[in-house]
Write a structure and sequence with these properties.
The protein is an alpha/beta fold. It is built from eight helices and six strands. It starts with 6 loop residues before the first strand and ends with a helix. Keywords: GTP-binding, Lipoprotein, Nucleotide-binding, Prenylation.
């Protein structure tokens, strides 16, 4: 007998290859952890029924390939996405710098009001392996108005909290739009013309890979005032 739920939330997990996207989906949906994974080819998804503050919600979680050759395919799955878990690896500065690509990709393809949560994976790593400190994650999350978590798939740290926060933000977004919370949303999101979905400013993306987040933010604010 199928379990009843009142709404389905489509969620994408985005980020570079090997940041732990498949791992976090398996850890959250199956409560399993594997030391090794084969890189996702294209798209995969799992579903999880959650109790969101007393209301049964089905999360449809799409695990997307991070490799460059699959990125065009990934964009097709933005349609109808209500939330995005954007990931990087705290032991990989490249994966952090490449958040610029993923944020631009979200801007270009997702609904303007899509909910975003940022997660820095592998926070259990030894200090000598960490390449991105927590403050840098907090800073970019603040600039883009995203809740932020450092997570560990290996030690199951903050994973449930990240997904539940994403689900709650989606619910708040639906309520803000005046949608009935107890009605399953099978419609598609519509993108408003001219809206970038990233708040009041748009970054010059070529700056972002540099180790100067504060400078980037200042430049972006200055650009909007000109």
């Amino acid at each position: 007998m199928a379990l009843d739920f009142v709404a389905t939330y489509k969620v994408l997990v985005l980020g570079d290859s090997n940041v732990g996207k498949t791992c976090i989906v398996h850890r959250y949906c199956d409560e399993k952890y594997y030391d090794t994974y084969i890189s996702t080819i294209g798209i995969d998804f799992k579903q999880k029924l959650i109790n969101l503050d007393g209301v049964p919600i089905k999360l449809q979680i799409w695990d997307t390939a991070g490799q460059e050759r699959f990125r065009t395919l990934t964009t097709a799955y933005y349609r109808g996405a209500m939330g995005i878990l954007l990931m990087y690896d705290v032991t990989s500065l490249e994966s952090y710098n490449n958040l610029s690509y993923w944020l631009r990709n979200i801007q270009e393809n997702a609904s303007p009001d899509v909910v975003k949560v940022l997660a820095g994976n592998k926070c259990e790593c030894p200090p000598n392996q960490r390449m991105v400190d927590k403050e840098r994650g907090e800073k970019i999350a603040e600039n883009f108005d995203m809740p932020f978590f450092e997570v560990s798939c290996k030690q199951d740290i903050n994973i449930e909290e990240a997904f539940l926060t994403l689900a709650r933000k989606i619910r708040e977004q639906r309520e803000h739009r005046g949608e009935n919370f107890d009605t399953e949303d099978k419609g598609q999101e519509k993108k408003s013309p001219g809206s970038n979905g990233l708040g009041a400013f748009t970054l010059e993306w070529s700056y972002f890979a540099q180790d100067t987040i504060d400078d980037v933010y200042s430049k972006s604010k200055q650009a909007t005032s000109e």
